[in-house]
């Protein structure tokens, strides 16, 4: 995220864009909360933060940041990224924490 954060400084258009991201994130959070089993609700803040960072990276870099794109795919699959082997060069470790429902 360092690269994306560095790019945000001095961008006049970013602050309104960030407000849009946060508004969308609120809507996503309602849906995530509905699908997340009660015994995994403590993960909600982490999922929110990950999705915010995915959106921010996409707003600034497109879909070119492999780390955040992988994080998004892990969440889309209904898993939770819970670690990394050999950080920062290793692979993300996934924990299947919940299965989304329709």
* Rg estimate, integer Å: 14 Å
What oligomeric assembly is this protein in? Answer: single chain
Q: Low-confidence spans: pLDDT under 50, at least 5 residues?
A: none
Label the overall shape.
flat
Distance N terminus to C terminus?
31 Å
* Number of helical elements: 4
Structure description:
It is a single chain. By secondary structure, the protein is mainly α. The chain has one domain (2-95). It is 57% helix and 9% strand. The protein contains 4 helices and 2 strands, in the order ααααββ. The protein has helices at 2-8, 14-35, 44-61, 66-76, and strands spanning 80-84, 92-95. Strands 1-2 form a two-stranded antiparallel ribbon. Helix 1 packs across helix 3 (44-61). The mean pLDDT is 76.
What is the strand and helix layout of this fold?
Blueprint: H1 2-8, H2 14-35, H3 44-61, H4 66-76, E1 80-84, E2 92-95
Helix pairs in contact: 1-3, 2-3, 3-4
Short overview:
By secondary structure, this protein is mostly helical. It is built from 4 helices and 2 strands, in the order H-H-H-H-E-E. The protein has a two-stranded antiparallel ribbon with strand order 1-2.
């Amino acid at each position: 995220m360092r690269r994306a954060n560095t790019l945000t400084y001095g961008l006049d258009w970013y602050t309104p864009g960030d407000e849009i991201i946060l508004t969308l994130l609120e809507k996503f959070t309602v849906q995530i909360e509905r699908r997340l089993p009660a015994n995994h609700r403590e993960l909600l803040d982490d999922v929110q933060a990950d999705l915010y960072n995915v959106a921010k990276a996409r707003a600034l870099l497109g879909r070119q940041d492999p780390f955040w794109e992988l994080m998004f795919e892990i969440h889309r699959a209904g898993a939770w990224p819970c670690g990394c082997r050999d950080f920062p060069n290793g692979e993300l470790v996934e924990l299947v924490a919940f299965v989304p429902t329709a």
